[in-house]
Amino acid sequence: MSYCREEGKDKIVFLEKDSAVKNDSKTMSLLPSDLEDEPGLVLENGEINWNCPCLGGMSSGPCGVPFREAFSCFHYSQADQKGSDCYEEFAKMTDCFRKYPDIYAEPDGNKEENDTEESTPDASSEQTSDETSATSDGKKS
Amino acid sequence: MQRVGRSFATKQLLRKFDNLNARVINIKAQDFEKTAIPILQCNYSNGAHKDVTQANKLVRYGKWGDRDPYKDINGFTLPKFVSQGFLQTPTYIRNYKRYASSDRPLPPPPPPPPTKESVTPYLIIGAAGAAGLGYYLWKNWTEFLALLGICPEDKTDSPTSRKEKRADDPISIKCDKEPERECVVLNTPTPDQPGDGPSAKRLPPPKYPDWKNCPAIPGYASYLIIGAGTAANAAYRAIRTNNPKAKVLIISEECNLPYMRPPLSKELWFNDSRKLTEDLKFKQWNGKERSIFYEKDCFYTSPKELPYKSCGGVAVALGRKVQKIDVENKVVSLDNKWQINYDKLLIATGGKPRQHPIIDNSDEEVKKRTTVYRKIVDFQKLDCVTSKGKSVAVIGGGFLGSELAVALGNKAKKSNAKIYQIFPEKGNMGKVLPQYLSNWTTEKVRNENVNIIPESTLTKATMCKNDKVALTLSNGQEIQVDHIVVAIGLEPDVSIAECSGLEVDPIRGGFLVNAEMKAREDIWVAGDAASFYDIKLGRRRVEHHDHAVVSGRLAGENMSGKSKPYWHQSMFWSDLGPEVGYEAIGLVDSSLPTTAVFAKACKSDSPRAVVEETNENLRSETEESVCIEKVKVDSETKPAPPNGTEDFGKGVIFYTKDNVVVGMVMWNVFNKMSIARRILKEQRKYDDLTEVAKLFDLHENN
């Protein structure tokens, strides 16, 4: 049985398991209907959301500019194999990554593979520093 | 030209100015070195190109002996550099530019240019000048090094205090492992030219034009940030995200690159490996190592190289204090008289921890054994002390005090040292949690090997003959400890407010800013030092990590063109050892009426479980990222007996004002922050908060 008591201005309720079942229609109505979800990697107008925590520190780091150029090229690429016409941009980006091995080196393979549109925004590696910048925006799946 | 003994480079510049019908009188060589480059930068700051390389090329590498007044791309004529005993500061030039571009009459025309001279005298004078510059550098070597942030002899917290000790310098105690206090020397700058791969770090300084003349700290920065903490870190990321080629210059009084503070009172104390603690890294419970520094050293550019970076970057100038901001002319003055022009300024100075008044009036010996806890050096000192098994008294019963007491209590379990915690409230977190919960928490802290002395304050602190400190408390008790830790609150750093003309909040302290974190034109403030207007909850000043991130990010976005108000509520969290923790959001003040809904906690409801699941120690990041598996338990949850021993294991506490929820504490309930945010945002009057509490699935793991 749930019960409650009061201590001055503070009210305490102990909730029993059974009565903790959500009465869907009643309690869910308490949740605001407009759930403002932060946009993911791609905004509504089709542009890339550079603020997305899934990108980690990539778009604002030392290699931010070449990364953006490469990724934008890939994103808007209409070629049969998406991104195949973006070789130059990706080459510049990789060159830049090589200059900062401490930040961009990935112990198990290429960093670029994680940055394709289809990638799931997983928790970034230790070298990137996205974790401290995101609060609760963006989805982490 | 009046002087001999100037460097060849200076001569070249003066010559150029002479060809531009300028006269320079009575300017000392070294001053001219300092002012010349910023002037050149300044002239082009609003032009089509902000790159000093380009600017210098136009002036210095133009045609030799050119007699025409020099015009830049915008058709603006470079002004005369005429002085009557005062320096050509960037301020003068800015004023001139404004003056020249207005409708007012221009200054009188310049005198006719001198005739072309032969080169030979210059070669002779140039050689003498080079010798002169060499002599000057040799004479002022230490000053020159200090500009670069290298202080080889300095063992105190700041390189500028070698001559006089500042009041807050941690005076070193005899400790086996003296903590390192040198300034971080940034890596050799990496050149921008393509093709320079991993060997770039071993190259000599890059061959930029004017590299030798360039000042160690630029005279101009489009984005300038004062303070190198969490808010600054969030801000420069936001700036660089919105403006990818932004050049951000950070000025920091301290000697550390930006780092996060929460581990200094939590994770770093629970490391298994000694090496990790010394490296300022911690292992999260899932095995993943993490440094407290936000970025690796190579992420940052050196301040000297910043103007040359075509793709922008972030530079941190360490060990420099800002003395004054000239808001109207947008100039910042440092403690070494260097001036920096800016376009946008962020003040993220945070604060200084408060010293206890009784200890402040005590002997030097007592002060030597006191740590006013906030920074990395304080952690290192305390770590050293406790590693020797010394007894410690923690003064303060808030977040920092309680977390430290638990951490120290845990460490002292092996050495049998005594850890005390002294505070005036009735229980730990007495100002935040309702009374009953505060009492319960105090018991939990006692279980972590801490001798808690509540409802008491320090009245006297004296040295004993056995080299311990005797503390006399207001309740008459007297205890003897080896070391004292003070954690009684933060004093926001508003030292530059008065002389800069910035408003300070008399009630809450800190710089007064609006909902967009703006104090004055082109000046923003974020983090602990900002008293801001929260649209939902009114004016506040918040001293938490997540708030620094949120407000820093908001300020950064507003600096790079947007104008968003503060709406995303920041949260905070605290752990009392690995078993008990909570997350909170909004106004969490124990003086407000509260309604709490509890269920019994089980093993998977603990901070440890959360981190193991989400791979993330900063719990501001774990929202919406976890599906905690439902653990099947045979026994049914029995309701707690009324008036018996209540176990406040897991629940939600709502803080209300006029029946509207203004704050929430999720007690051992994790990853439900998004629900809490939504409830807070709604600001609805709820009749039955028990129904609302059901949204948090309190029995999820039962």
TrEMBL record, chain A:
Domain CHCH: start-end pairs: 63-99
Pfam family, one: CHCH
Major localization class: mitochondrion
Example GO biological process: protein import into mitochondrial intermembrane space
TM helices/strands, residue ranges: none
Signal peptide from the UniProt entry: none
Alphabetically ordered keywords of this record: Disulfide bond, Mitochondrion, Oxidoreductase, Protein transport, Redox-active center, Translocation, Transport
Comp. bias intervals (Polar residues): 121-141
Record localization: Mitochondrion
Record-given protein name: DgyrCDS731
Species of origin: Dimorphilus gyrociliatus
Automatic annotation (TrEMBL), chain B:
Annotated InterPro entries: AIF_C, FAD-oxidoreductase/Apoptosis, FAD/NAD-bd_sf, FAD/NAD-binding_dom, FAD/NAD-linked_Rdtase_dimer_sf
Residue ranges annotated for the Mitochondrial apoptosis-inducing factor C-terminal domain, each copy included: 555-682
GO molecular function, one term: protein dimerization activity
One GO location term (cellular component): mitochondrion
GO biological process, one term: apoptotic process
PANTHER family: APOPTOSIS-INDUCING FACTOR 1, APOPTOSIS-INDUCING FACTOR 1, MITOCHONDRIAL
Protein name: DgyrCDS5041
Lineage: Eukaryota, Metazoa, Spiralia, Lophotrochozoa, Annelida
